[in-house]
Amino acid sequence: MLRKTPLAAALMTIIAAPIAAPLYAQTAPQATSQATPADISPAEGTTLPAVRVTGQADTSSDFQPETSSVGAKVPTALRDIPQAVVVVPKSVMQSQAATSFSDALRNVPGITIGAAEGGQIGNNINLRGFTARTDIYLDGFRDRGQYYRDTFNLDSIDVLYGPSSLYFGRGSTGGVINQVSKQPTLKKRADVSVMAGTHDRYRTTVDLDQPITDTAAFRINAFGQDLGSTRDVMKSKDFGIAPQVKFGIGTPTEITLSALIQHNRDQPDYGVPPLNGHPAPVDRKTFYGFTDDRTIQDVQTLSARIVHRVNENVTLRNETQFSHYSTEARATNPAAVLTGPLGTSTALTNGNYTTLPLQSLYVRLQGKDRNINDHSVYNTTDVQAKFATGFVKHEVVAGVDLSHETYSNQTFTATAPGLPSNTIAIVPLLNPPYNNRPSNVRELATNLAESSANGIGIYANDTISLGDYWKIVGGVRWDRFEASIHNSINAPSYATQTNFYTSVRGGIIFQPTETQSYYVSYGTSFNPSLEALTLTNTTQNISPETNRSYEVGAKWDLLGGGLSITQSLFNIEKDNARTQTSTGEYTLDGDVRVRGYQLGVAGHITNKWQVFGGYTYMNGVVLKAADGTTGHTLANTPRNMLTLWTTYAFTPQWEIGGGPVYTSSRYAANTNYVSVGGYTRWDAMAAYHQKKYDIQFNVLNMTDKKYYDALIPSDGGRAVPGLGRTFLATLNYRFF
Question: Taking every annotated instance into account, which residue ranges of this chain make up the domain TonB-dependent receptor plug (predicted)?
């Protein structure tokens, strides 16, 4: 039998779709997100699994998103975005009891998690094989702080795949992730949620929405949590508050003022070291560090938005955001694996292969102490205009982005007497002791890196409608990004760069019916050396890396519009990647490529049965590199990923749900010395709904599967064990 590769099977499916989709259209009425009661006959209303009525139906528990602003900076129907987009709505996060940013992103195929590394703390995300650490956004503005994000104030998380510098400037090789905040409304609400779980997990959230006048409202969301873990020692105590006020709701001019204030005190987790090419076979509870390690983070973000609708065809918008992020980290990581308990013992390398028994091995503990401060000011002014030139219709978005960013990172070394520099202790690989950091450790301030950057971007994008079936999307952006860095000790002592780059985006969309959309697209992006306001020596004089993406896909609304299916084939290539030569210099002669296929599903199969999920196949390879990794598989890029969440309301009050998350094996670094095995994690839920309250039970990792969640490429490749079986009970109470 002839076997098809995932890419070949996907291509055949996309080609066959134009034949299959009309069959659905013939058996179910066509529906769009703009449907009104007058558009649906009684007969149709009785046969549709899901009737979507804008402004009328309660969609708070609906898994099927209709629009996203991540693909065009303004709310746009997903079918009109010529790129793959995944929108994780609040209803999915609530159903899964997903309270952290990382947990919510488990619903997004193609995303893998990195962990604390070097000067980076907080959410470290890989998207389609490329780092997205600086490609996380909050309401359209870069959220570049290094902190652990929460979902308490989010309506959705929108993910746009592929290079997208047209709207977002530098970065976005694999795509961008935008957090969409809850907004004040004219509907009064007061919701309180209380959660308790095994392993001492406690959490409370509050959501208050209060109309002030007929056109103004105030909303405030808050949370507090005290979380234990299935890992020894690990714990976190966090709280946050997000007030917002909105004036002019429903009038031509709307003004929104908002803030995010969050405080985290978490236990840093640098995972377990590798042994014989895999994570060391120790109990997953094992913790390498000290009980008084901590990461203290404070976030303050202030935003102002003014939207003025000149008329039904022209809208002006101006947005400003001020952000400050501070991090105090006193952390410890398991570094080299040693063959003995002394600082002079031989260190294992290259995957740490050895025939020695586990009880003969030791781990060097190193300090990762640092104080980090990030500041940023962003301003965007744009105009959205609709007009026609003859029979051709245009929807134009044009604007100017301005930014100023600063960054400082003071690092420290911590050394215990009689041990090598920056070594705090040497502990057994098996059953390391859990103690406070020794009092005789000498801490010394080392390098202070101070950076700043100024950016300006001018962009325009036009969506051209040619008749009823065809749309052409085209845009261009010019960026000037100027950055400088000063190091007190490290080289270079001072460096500055000014980069100019022109990004483009183009796409052709064919929509034969209101339930079908087929597209091809092309996009570019760029990555300066000082993109994250940090710099590796010898990279200061080289040009930005550039990326390009090709994508072909299809988006369908089936079962009367109640179920959305998306498919795409993609190719992302960075053909001038930075690589290090044998002399230590960096050049732009590397070539990295990720090809793959993606499938997504969201919505109703019946009016009681909902699904949300996706699958991706990624073939990430280093095509060319001067560091000896040519031909290797790209780090943290599994070939196959699957996520599926489904719920069924078998009575108006009772609902059950669950589903798997599958990730195949992956490498911790491009060296391919250390790999982490694939896994399938199963979660489940049951809920009882009443008008005033919900009671919900969740089981995370129902089979207590041992797996590794986050990967760290340094020291050969460390891996952080995932959460063990955890039971959660949640009470949601609505006062109105």
Answer: 78-176
Residues 6+ apart with CB under 8 A from 197: 726, 727, 728, 729
Q: Is residue 264 within 8 Å of 147, Cβ to Cβ?
A: yes
> Which residue is it, tokens 């050394």?
415
Instruction: Please give the mean pLDDT across all residues of the chain.
Output: 91
Complete DSSP assignment for 628-680: S-TTPBPTT--SEEEEEEEEE-SSSSEEEEEEEEEE--EESSTT---EE--EE
Question: How many angstroms separate the CA atoms of 325 and 327, rounded?
Answer: 7
Mean pLDDT of 42-48: 37
- 648 has a pLDDT exceeding 60: yes
Superfamily holding 67-734: TonB-dependent receptor, beta-barrel domain (2.40.170.20)
Contacts of 27 (CB under 8 A, 6+ apart): none
**pLDDT above 50 (res 159):** yes
Beta-bridge partners for 253: 308
Query: Exposure of 344 by Cβ count < 10 A (0-12 exposed, 13-18 middle, 19+ buried)?
Result: exposed
Enumerate the H helices of 50-192 as residue ranges: 90-96, 101-104, 165-168
Element (H, E) at 45: helix 42-47
Angle ∠(492,496,500) on CA atoms, nearest 5: 140
Beginning with the edge strand found earlier in the chain, give each strand of the sheet holding 124-127 in spatial order: 130-131, 124-127, 111-114, 708-712, 718-721
Residue 438: is the preceding peptide bond cis (ω within 30°)? no
Q: Answer yes or no: are the C-beta atoms of 508 and 519 closer than 8 Å.
A: yes
Q: Please give the Cα distance from 368 to 414 (Å, whole number).
A: 8
431: phi > 0 → left, psi -120 to 50 → alpha, else beta; which? left
Region 485-511: mean pLDDT is 96
| Helical (H) or strand (E) element with 157 | strand 154-161
Distance of alpha carbon 732 from alpha carbon 476, whole angstroms = 46
**Residue 261 burial class via C-beta count within 10 angstroms: exposed 0-12, middle 13-18, buried 19 and up:** middle
Residue 5 has pLDDT above 50, yes or no: no
Of the chain, the percentage scoring pLDDT greater than 90 comes to: 84
Q: Which residue type sits at 87?
A: V
How far apart are the two ends of the chain, measured CA to CA in Å? 61
Spatial contact of 635 and 73, defined as CB atoms under 8 Å apart = no
Q: What is the pLDDT of residues 286-315, one digit of tens each?
A: 999 999 999 999 999 999 999 999 999 999
pLDDT for position 151: 97
Q: Determine the pLDDT at residue 59.
A: 53
Stretch 646-675: mean pLDDT: 96
Tokens of 108: 């997004």
